[in-house]
Write a structure and sequence with these properties.
It is a single chain. With 76 residues, the chain is an all-alpha fold. It has one domain (11-75). Helix content is 72%, strand content 0%. It contains three helices and no strands. It has helices at residues 11-29, 33-41, 49-75. InterPro entries: TumA.
Length: 76
């Protein structure tokens, strides 16, 4: 699997794109990302490339969500 680097113009753009990818995976696997990540973290899900990517996307989503939340609190 080739590693791909994607550049976004803002954290909000990145969050939106990651949310879209998460939504697709959730639909395909009939599981919310939060439930998937909980099960994945406990070793209940295989380490297939797709699941590793899903876990990484979810971690990135959580990070960006927190980052934007902090920035918005400083603006308000």
């Amino acid at each position: 699997m080739r590693k791909q680097t994607i550049q976004y113009s803002s954290p909000l753009d990145a969050l939106i794109e990651i949310a879209k990818r998460l939504s697709i995976l959730e639909s395909q696997h009939h599981m919310e990302s939060e439930e998937f990540f909980y099960r994945y973290s406990r070793g209940e899900m295989p380490d297939d490339a797709e699941f590793v990517e899903w876990a990484n996307d979810y971690r990135h989503y959580l990070y960006l969500h927190q980052e934007l939340d902090v920035k918005l609190k400083h603006v308000a």
